[in-house]
Amino acid sequence: MSHQPPPLVFQDMLTHHQDRALLQELWEHFPEHMFLIRVESPQRFVVEAVNPAQQTTIGYPCVGLTIEELLPDAEQARSVTDHYRDCLACDHPLRYEEIGHFHEESGEPLHWLTLLVPLHDDQGRTTHLFGISQNVTELRLARQALEAQNARLEALVAERTAELQASNARLEALASRDELTGIANRRQLITLSEHAMQRARRQHTPLALLILDIDGFKAINDTRGHLAGDAILREVAQTLADTLRESDLLGRFGGDEFVAVLPDTRAEDARHLAERLRGAVTQRCGCTLGLGIADFTPHDDFASLVERADRALLRAKRARGASR
Ligand SMILES: Nc1nc2c(ncn2[C@@H]2O[C@H](COP(=O)(O)OP(=O)(O)OP(=O)(O)O)[C@@H](O)[C@H]2O)c(=O)[nH]1
């Protein structure tokens, strides 16, 4: 198969002589490496010529050397000849980046961006590979430094975000917890109770609300002091939390009043549980509890439910006062 050489780039503008002169100028003065490799076989590549820029870098006569002789590092030589074979196989200009240097004792490896062009004879056989190599080490090192800097920044942002999330979680916990007892505060109790009531309404399930109030707490404070009063509030909260189920909600409603919301619980079961709570508090905290219970109806909201439980608590207190 005969192979038509492509027309010269400048054939319409330059004479053949000028064309050659231009190539000669480029070869002599181009600041990047230019080289011509003779393809003796797909396994054997020999340096045919290097331009002055590349000759300066190499520093010793290299024309006539095979790639293995030219490059001291066997792996680097293999990588280069692999690129040459790729170029032969695709029979098309090839661009690639490689890392390496010409001298064994050189320090940090250099990065080269290379364009390789197959050159053909009249029969279309690839006899030579023409290459231009640009030293892009500074560019690559700058890119690596930028990537490292980006990675550091990303790590810093991730660290700050985690800190922020943790402090948000702490703030949220602080905003939703009663400082003295650690159980839900009134605001949190109302929010959670509204959700529980919505579920009860939707699923037609029972729900009960208990108000528990420490009997004669003012007298405890007055006789044993506020710190002792605080300790009792903490003990009562802990005892109530220990006795209730995981799914029940418990909060400090204010002063010496606690509210428990019991999802999936009928009035009768709520009464039994309330007695258990009172028994546990009497036993563990050395005080007694007044109690009011309200059963949820679909028309209730938190306020109406609390109001009924509060009235029941007052009635119970009055009844106990009258019976004393
Ligand atoms: N130690 C302490 N006392 C508190 C706290 N919050 C409210 N109190 C006190 O709790 C007492 C509640 O008094 P009352 O509402 O009259 O209740 P009580 O003395 O238990 O009366 P009854 O409920 O009728 O038995 C008041 O003296 C408040 O000052 C607190 O965080 N710590």
Secondary-structure map:
Layout: H1 16-29, E1 33-41, E2 44-50, H2 52-58, H3 67-70, H4 74-90, E3 94-100, E4 110-120, E5 126-135, H5 137-176, H6 186-203, E6 207-214, H7 217-224, H8 226-243, E7 249-254, E8 257-263, H9 267-285, E9 289-295, H10 302-323
The structure holds guanosine-5'-triphosphate.
Concise synopsis of the structure shown:
The chain is about 50% helix and about 20% strand. It is of the alpha+beta class and about 325 residues long.
Structure characteristics:
alpha+beta, 10 helices, Beta-Lactamase, 324 residues, rod-shaped, binds guanosine-5'-triphosphate, 3 domains, 52% helix, diguanylate cyclase activity, 22% strand, EC 2.7.7.65, Alpha-Beta Plaits
CATH architecture of the largest domain: 2-Layer Sandwich
Q: What is the count of DSSP helices, taking H or I runs of 4+ residues?
A: 10
Catalogue the unreliable spans.
none
Q: What string, H for helix and E for strand, traces the elements in order? A: HEEHHHEEEHHEHHEEHEH
Strand content: 15-25%
Q: Given the helix and strand composition, which structural class is it?
A: alpha+beta
Radius of gyration: 44 Å
The CATH class of the largest domain is identified as Alpha Beta
Strand order of the largest sheet: 2-1-5-4-3
CATH topology of the largest domain: Alpha-Beta Plaits
Number of strands: 9
The CATH fourth-level homologous superfamily of the largest domain: Reverse transcriptase/Diguanylate cyclase domain
Biggest sheet features: 5 strands, antiparallel
Bound molecules: guanosine-5'-triphosphate
**Mean pLDDT, rounded to whole units?**
92
What characteristic shape results from the CA principal axes?
rod-shaped
Kindly report how far apart the N and C termini lie: 123 Å
Keywords: Coiled coil, Nucleotidyltransferase, Transferase
EC number: 2.7.7.65
Protein name: diguanylate cyclase
Enzyme class: transferase
